[in-house]
Amino acid sequence: MKPTTQQVASQDKPAKSANLLYNPTFRSVVFQVLAVVALGLFFYTIVNNALTNLSSRGIATGFDFLSQEAGFGIGLTLIEYDETFSYGRTFYVGLLNTALVSVLGILLATVLGFVMGIARLSSNWLVSRFAAVYIEIFRNIPLLLQIFFWYFAVLQALPSPRQSMSLGEAIFLNVRGLYFPAPVFEQGSGVVIAVFVIGVIATACIAYWAKNKQKLTGQQTPVGRIGAALIIGLPLVAYFITGMPISAEYPVLKGFNFRGGISIIPELAALTLALSIYTASFIAEIVRSGINAVSHGQTEAAMSLGLPRNRTLKLVVIPQAMRIIIPPLTSQYLNLTKNSSLAMAIGYPDLVSVFAGTTLNQVGQAIEIIAMTMGVYLALSLITSALMNLYNKKVALVER
Prior knowledge:
Layout: H1 5-21, H2 24-56, H3 87-120, H4 125-138, H5 143-154, E1 165-167, E2 171-174, E3 177-180, E4 182-185, H6 189-217, H7 223-241, E5 246-249, E6 252-254, E7 257-259, E8 262-264, H8 266-293, H9 296-304, H10 309-339, H11 351-363, H12 366-395
Antiparallel strand pairs: 1-2, 2-3, 3-8, 4-5, 6-7
Helix pairs in contact: 3-4, 3-8, 3-11, 4-8, 5-8, 6-7, 8-10, 9-10, 10-12, 11-12
C-alpha cells in the first residue's frame, strides 16, 4: 500500500529540520546572533553594576558636567578658550590639539620615511650607511625616551627669551618656544586668497589633464613649472595689484617673554619631532621592502629606454611599490595617532592630558570621560583607515 501525500509530507518535515540544523549558513547566523546577544548582556551587566555602585556612593553620572565651567587654563588652544569656558570646550580643545600633532607627525614622518627608505637603497655607500644607522637607532629606542630626549635634553637646554637665538630679527628660538611673524590680513586680502585657491584648483585640473594626455600620447607637460606660476606667481601679481593688503606682525620681547606673532610651544615641537622621527624609521623599512619587491626587470627596461635613475624611480618603481607600501603604511599612521597620547608625559595639552586628565580629576566621572576619549581615538583611526583604503583602491592593480 502506497503512503498518502499527507504521510510523505509529515515524514519530510523532520528531515528538513535536521538538514537546517546541519546547514553551515544557518548555524553561522544563529551562533553570531547568540554571540551578539551574550556580548550585549555582558556589557549591560557591567555598565549597570558600575552605575549602581556610583549612585550608591553619591557620584553623579551622565553628561551634564560638559556644561559646567572648567576653571583651568590650557597652554595651547586652536580655538577661543579661557577658564570661564565649559568642560565641553576643553574636550574640543584637546581633540584639536591631538589632531594637530597627529597630522603634523604623519606628514613629517611620511616625507622623512620615504627619503630614508630610498636612501637605504642608494648606491652611495655613505648615504646608504647613514640611512641604515638612522633606522637601527631610532626604531630600537622606546618612543617615550625619545620624547624625553627632545624635550629635556634639547629644547629645555635652549637659552632664555632675553638671550634668544634669532634669525634676521624676525624668528626667535628660546626655551619658551619658536616665534615667527604672523600674517595680518587687511582689506583686499580676500582677493589674494581667492586667486591662490583658484591657482591650486587650476593646477590640480592641469595635472589630471596632463596625466591623461601622457597615457594617450606619451607626451609630458611641465606641470611643476605651470603649478609654480599659478600657485606662487599669480597670487604675487594679485598681491601687488591690490596694494599689498597682507602684512606681518613680528614677535617683540616684552618683559620676560615675546608677544605677537606665532609661537610654537616646546611641548608641541618635542612631541612632533619624536613621533615623526620614530615612525619614519619604520616607514623607511616599509618603503625599502616595497621597492625591493618590484621586479628588477622593470628598472632595467626603463633604463634601456634611456630614462635616468630619478625618473625611473618616480615613474616606474614607486607607483608599483605603492601597492605594497600602503597597507603597512596605514598601520604606522594609526600607531602614530595613538602614540600621541604619550604627550601627557611632557605636558602637551592633548585630549588625554586635558580631558582624560585634568577634567577627570575635577569631575570624577570616569565612565563618561574615558568612553568619550576612546571614541575619539577610534574615530580618528577609522577616518585614517578609510582615507588610506580609498587611496589603496585607487592605486591597486586592475586586472583585465
